[in-house]
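Researcher: I'm preparing a figure for a lab meeting and need a structural model of a single chain. I don't have an experimental structure, so a prediction will have to do for now. The sequence is pasted below. Please return the structure as tokens so I can convert it later.
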Amino acid sequence: MIRVLLVDDQALIRGGFRALLEIEDDIEVVAEAANGERGVALAAEHRPDVALVDIQMPVMDGIEATRLIVADPRLSGVHVVILTNYGLDEYVFNALRAGACGFMVKDTEPEDLVQGVRVAARGDALLSPAITRRLIGEYVARRPEPAPEGLGTLTRREREVAVLVARGLSNDEIAAHMVISPATAKTHVSRVLAKLHVRDRAQLVVFAYESGLVTPRRG
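Model: Understood. Here is the structure written out token by token.
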């Protein structure tokens, strides 16, 4: 059973999402919050698998709530998905940098919402290759911040895996590209995450671009 926390200041949105999710046999909404501060408290109380968090809320916004959830070692199993009305923007990028595993727009199709929750619960990133290119091209490439450290800890093979993850490939696609088994690909990805001290694939994507391992493709 996938346990979900809903954090949004609009009761109608929370109610709609709850109704859509609880139709599914494998999903349970365990709690709701109307602001980020309450959402963080409920995340600590219920330890959900997935927290759907609105990006703009009173008291505490979704970016700060994400940062606090990710920083709490007790909540390492909570995967934060940002909800937004506006699609890809700098708020979304900042939320991903804060530790969110991806984002969804609020007018997403019901089947996409359900699929997104399942993807997040598995620990995969909700970032398509096209979105990744836009995200990085617009908000990473222009930032003056120093590049993160850690690339030197990776083997040549692990660097190749990091690049493929950043390009949006799944474990099965990485396995086919590198002519290895899916289990071996998964092991490589796990080692890369551990060596770079990044939480999940979304964080690895951001790291790969910010470190210069992968260069944004324009157009």
